[in-house]
Amino acid sequence: GHFIDDSRLAGRPAEIFVGKMFKMEVWETLLASMRIGEVAEFWCDAVHTGLYPIVSKGMRLIAQGKDPLEGQRHMCGMGNMFNYHSTGFPELDELMRTPQPLIFIMELLQVGDPMSYQRESWMMEKDEKLQEVPILHMQGNTLVRQRQFRKAASKYKEAILLLKTVQSREMPGDIDYINLGRMIIPLELNYCQCMLELEEYYEVIEHTTELLEKHKDCVKGYYKRAKAHAAVWNEKEARRDFNMVAHLDITLASLVSRELKTLSECMKEKYWEEKEKYWNMLEKKENKNEDKEREDDDEEEDDEVDQQNEDWESLEKVRLPLTLNLSQCMLELKQYQQVVELNNKLLKKQKGNHFSMKMRV
């Protein structure tokens, strides 16, 4: 046999609420026979393990911080199994097709008072989830004021997941579905602002892009994505998004103008730095080759020619991308004469190189 699941790998113990018609009723019976701290092994016939694949899928989703009912319709567990044919996990699908006896090794860590337990989001009813959202929103705002952006982002994300879970139960296009989508927008924007503060720019780009696919007129979404693109030197994308902000809200035109000016200055500074870097690298390579040629003067003629050829080929392989990168920087800095001179030299050695010809043109 082999292990199917190990809840210890999830970093937190599994929890069962006795008497809540849990899908694996046999587990309630088994656990009720155990003492706290006891580890026991139970062999269960296939008649008691038929729904284990669905239970396992739910536990795996919970471990990932997702809703264990994700993707299910309003019907019993067995109905969902037949409706979808697959759990999304090959080993569980095989177990669904051919139910087998299973051995469960359980350790009873503690028995808690149900009245003292703080329920997780996936256990809440729709109204409870909706009531929890503004609380999480306010907690996030408080943490932002304290500049605890990581914790604030966690609160916003939790609220977003609650709303998305409720929304997934609604019919797309219905008024409730649309309203829930609108409620998600400020939370997503707050989350993205936290990520900007934490300099996690690609996370911002991913979330704002997803948001803008659904809400194409979200000005703040374009603005935050533009800031993220600018931070990772995506100049074209940043300009496009900043211009979209001004297009959607003319009152922000002066702000956009300042942002575009700042972007141009930052990009120019970057190109200068890269120009210096590539120029220095080229000089080092050429000096190294000259030094090597001097050393080779003391060697036999045949060996000298072979070594020079090898060094020259090695240098040329490095020179080409460096020269092209340097040329691109100079183009951005509008130093056109230097671009022509650089690529004239390159084309003498690499005739027909279309990248170099394009730069020169």
UniProtKB/TrEMBL annotation:
Q: Where in the cell is it found?
A: Cytoplasm
Which residues belong to any copy of the AIP/AIPL N-terminal FKBP-type PPIase domain?
3-109
Provide the primary localization. cytoplasm
Q: Does the keyword Oxidoreductase apply?
A: no
Taxonomically, the superkingdom here is Eukaryota
Keywords attached to this entry: Cytoplasm, Repeat, TPR repeat
GO cellular-component terms in the record?
cytoplasm
Annotated protein name in UniProt: Aryl hydrocarbon receptor interacting protein like 2
Q: Which Pfam families match?
A: PPIase_AIP
**Where are the stretches annotated Disordered?**
286-312
Q: Which GO terms describe its molecular function?
A: peptidyl-prolyl cis-trans isomerase activity
Q: Where is the composition biased (Acidic residues)?
A: 293-312
Task: Please verify whether the record's keywords include Repeat.
Answer: yes
Lineage in the entry?
Eukaryota, Metazoa, Chordata, Craniata, Vertebrata
